Amino acid sequence: MIGGDIECKGCPKTYNIEYNLQEKFKEIKDFLSANKLAMHDRAPTAWMNPRLDSCEICGNTLKPVILKKRDINWLFLLLGQMLGCCKLSELKYFCKHSKNHRTGTTDRVLYLTYLGLCKQLYPE
Fold first, then answer.
1. Sheet strands side by side (includes 62-64)
2. Residue 53 in contact with residue 40, Cβ under 8 Å?
3. Average pLDDT, 10 consecutive residues per value, the chain (124 residues)
4. What is the spatial distance between Cα 115 and Cα 41, in angstroms, rounded to a whole number?
5. How many angstroms from the chain centroid is the CA of residue 121?
6. Burial of 43 by CB count in 10 Å (0-12 exposed, 13-18 middle, 19+ buried)?
7. Rounded CA separation 106/42 (Å)
8. 20 to 30 A from 22, CA-CA: which of 13, 33, 80, 115?
């Protein structure tokens, strides 16, 4: 299980969510396998604008807790398909440290981030 925190944009409520690594990664890997050629090295809209849950208290959108670039829980964001919540500078930070090309538009850098994380988990 991989866990992380998400917070409400409207109230101070914070939630802890856990994902089953094998199940969630299989979903992402299967999606990439089926759609890699059609994506043309660009992240799909679902990754660019991830569907976020709503707060149980106030109904506002929940977002992942990201404090500093070096403390980002990349695996949690990958499994929750919430990497699109990261700023371009945070995505470039990941690409820099994983030795990926990091220039280009947000959709290309986001695609490289997804691909880089997937290759770390499943090198084949």
1. 14-19, 2-8, 62-64
2. no
3. 92 92 94 89 92 90 92 94 94 88 85 92 84
4. 10
5. 14
6. buried
7. 9
8. 13
User: How many whole angstroms separate alpha carbon 55 and alpha carbon 61?
Assistant: 6
- What does the pLDDT read at residue 36? 86
What is the C-alpha separation between 101 and 26, in angstroms, rounded?
Answer: 26
φ/ψ region of 96 (left if φ > 0, alpha if ψ in -120 to 50, else beta) reads alpha
* Residue in the block written with tokens 């929750």: 80
Which residues have CB under 8 Å from 80's CB, separation 6+? 4, 17, 19, 24, 50, 64
pLDDT at residue number 77? 96
Residues 6+ apart with CB under 8 A from 60: 8, 9, 10, 11, 54
pTM (two decimals)? 0.90
pLDDT, position 17? 93
Q: For the chain, percent helix, then strand, then coil, each to nearest 5?
A: 50, 15, 35
Token duo for residue 74: 């990349």
